[in-house]
């Protein structure tokens, strides 16, 4: 059967972050609240569409580190996240992990292969307990063809993903590691609902995790985090990462850009 998975509840959803394999950081290391403020795919669907989705999916449960989708796999499944966390990532021939995005509760993944019929472009791995709804490609396409609200929700989601990827490519092409790290920390703070002042991310993202998110190596992140700590911008206490002043961190990036 051709399928699709979405990580989301059938009632109103909230968002949470994720991680990768046994050699990668705990998905929760991004801080479970870090994506709570972000609006996810299923959040914008009305109850009638949610009911139609529920009637067409088959639920399944996954444990931490379970591979839900494998890179280059030729299945055409689509997934909706009902509860839990997942992460999309790729692995180079040299073994370098590249983290593409967090997939929180309420999000959708696997839709690209369901649309264009091409192999999977990434691995999707459970971060902790994960409950997903699996939908056949034929049902997914039928919803697109027959439900205008679902179609526009999907277009809005794909547009947002494209904009995010464009921003990331620009950062990778024009910013040094320090600036990319600041941008990522600001994203985590803002996703957790803090645009200013002090914010605590718990559990703290590991340096390995941050490195995978900004396309660098762990040692480079460790060096920059040590500098942030000495400047009292960002410190770590046990399993909590503290950004002492979001405005000051943002000003640090702006000062470097203007310089």
Describe it.
This protein has helices at residues 47-56, 111-116, 137-146, 148-174, 177-191, 207-214, 218-230, 246-258, and strands at residues 5-7, 57-62, 67-69, 78-91, 97-103, 107-109, 123-135, 199-201, 234-237, 240-243. Strand 9 (234-237) and strand 10 form a beta hairpin. The longest helix has 27 residues, at 148-174. Helices cover 39% and strands 23% of the residues. Strands 1, 2, 3, 4, 5, 6 and 7 form a seven-stranded mixed beta sheet that branches. Strands 8-10-9 form a three-stranded antiparallel beta sheet. With 259 residues, it is of the alpha+beta class. It is elongated. Helix 3 (137-146) packs across helix 4. The chain has two domains: 5-164, Jelly Rolls (Sandwich); 176-258, Arc Repressor Mutant, subunit A (Orthogonal Bundle), CATH 1.10.10. It has eight helices and ten strands.
Describe what is shown at a glance:
The chain has about 260 residues and is of the alpha+beta class. It has helices at about 45-55, 110-115, 135-145, 150-175, 175-190, 205-215, 220-230, 245-259; strands at about 5, 55-60, 65-70, 80-90, 95-105, 105-110, 125-135, 200, 235, 240-245.
What would CATH call the homologous superfamily of the largest domain? Answer: Jelly Rolls
Radius of gyration: 19 Å
Query: Low-confidence spans: pLDDT under 50, at least 5 residues?
Result: 1-37
CATH topology of the largest domain, what is it called? Answer: Jelly Rolls
Number of DSSP strand runs: 10
Report the CATH architecture of the largest domain.
Sandwich
Main CATH class of the largest domain: Mainly Beta
Number of domains: 2
Broad structural category: alpha+beta
In DSSP terms (H or I, runs of 4 or more residues), the helix count works out at: 8
Tertiary shape: elongated
* Helix percentage: 25-40%
Distance between the termini: 56 Å
Biggest pleated sheet: 7 strands, mixed
